[in-house]
Each structure stands twice: as C-alpha cells, then as structure tokens.
C-alpha cells in the first residue's frame, strides 16, 4: 500500500510540470512565473539526478532525468518570453 | 557525500517554491501559472506527506508538510487572482 503511494507520488511528481511547460510555450505568457523558483527547482532536480547516479537508483535517475528536461524547458521559455 | 547531496536536494526542493509564492501574492500576476500543474504538484506533495506518515519518515513528513503549505498558497493565489 505504502509502496503504491510512493510510486504514484514519484510518477506524478515527474509529469506534473508538463501542463506548465505546455502553457508557457503555447501562450508565451511567462510574466507570472518566478525565474528564481524555477532555477532553484532546476537545481533541485539536478541534485536528485546526481544523487540517483551516485547511489545507482534507477527510479530516481529516470524520474529526475525526465524532470530535468521538463523544468529546463520552462526555464528556457521564461528566459525567451520575459 | 551522497547523503549531503540528498539532504541538500531535500531542503532545496522544499523551499524552492517560496519565491513563486511571494511573486504570485505580491504582483497578483498569476496568468502565466498553470492551475493544472500546480494542482498536480499539490497532489504530489500530499501523496509524499501521506507516504511519509505511513512509513514514519520524519524528513519526508517535515519537507512535504512545509511544501504543502507553500504550494497550497500558490494555488490559492492562482484561484484568487485569475
């Protein structure tokens, strides 16, 4: 039971920013997005990816590898359409 | 070394949305924020909190308890200033 909740949280945490990425690129409206918050989140995901690589945890590597691309895409949209 | 990276990622992941909360409430500009993404993220943080409570993991409980308040505050701002 706990494991399923953990897996669900992991998957949801990876894909939850897809709608934000989509919105930023499709509307080009990024004025309300905090660059600081998204850069800090980018650093967070990068650290989790490094941690996953160091301890050899495949779920962490996959989740944060995908997450890195998604968040990077939000940051690029913010810098492009500011 | 890995542990320090993990702890740093955990702390950063908890506080990284504070600038977004601040920006949303101070500028009242939330048009660029994706409600779907923030609701999914709220669900994610809630699931991690439930998972932490079920397995009795204090760092998970503390991080996601704080995270829940921060993300909830962003969602409320989005609903209030849409």
From TrEMBL, chains A, B:
Keywords: Membrane, Transmembrane, Transmembrane helix. The chain crosses the membrane at residues 6-25, 32-54, 60-79. Gene3D superfamilies: 1.20.1280.290. GO terms for cellular component: membrane. Pfam families: MtN3_slv. Coiled coil: none annotated. This is MtN3 and saliva related transmembrane protein. It comes from Antarcticimicrobium sediminis. The lineage of its organism: Bacteria, Pseudomonadati, Pseudomonadota, Alphaproteobacteria, Rhodobacterales.
